TrEMBL record:
Region of interest (Disordered), residue spans: 1-30
GO cellular component: plasma membrane
Composition bias type Low complexity, residue spans: 1-11
Protein origin, superkingdom: Archaea
Organism: Natrinema saccharevitans
Name of the protein described by the UniProt record: ABC transporter ATP-binding protein
Amino acid sequence: MSNQSVRGSRSSVRDRTDDRESATAVRLADVTHEYGGTGGRLRSGGDRTVTALRGVTFDVPRGAIVGLEGPSGSGKSTILHAVAGLLVPTEGRVEVAGTDLTVLSDAERTRLRRRHIGIVFQRFYLLPSLSARANVALPLVQAGVPRADRRDRAESLLEAVGLGDRATHLPGELSGGERQRVAIARALSTDPDVIVADEPTGELDTATGRTVLELLTDVGRDRAVIVASHDEATLSVADRIVALRDGRVDDVR
């Protein structure tokens, strides 16, 4: 990874001084979410309702990394999707950067997500026909940032994650660790307040995973980061662990 930190590579994509005044970047309050039934998005056994989250409450301060721990089906991914505004919980509030996502329209949540939230997926989800630089710049296209500024921002971030010499490479020409670092750079492109990461080292070998974790630690110095993982090494970078079981908070440590 480059000696230039991600923190030091931040550009003036927009003035964020007012946005960073609050110490709490993410707040979940009594969040319950059900899949299924006649109006749900997931059916399991006909119309049977599946309760993924049950009264989940916790805060994530700015500058902190919170790890979500628990077996498959415990609700980790549902929490990430709720924080990212990809679903609206059945009950409760999800606040990001001081805004309750649950009262927003789909379009409003999309705008908030583009501005305030970066997402890192386990399987990278890079567009195979675009270069690393173009993949990183893609959220800036959606945000209406001028082309020259997009290019400068993408190159700065790739340099920061140690891939300055891979800017023109396609994802198929990169290793798994390099693709994940491109994905992290993409998540940072709009300078978000919050990063959510779902099993970010799940497809990486131990050494490469360690590099990605170092990068996430650097990212978390002035943002809120929420990481869901089964892996103890991944969770070891967290300042706080929220342990989940059957959709409930089982322990916080």
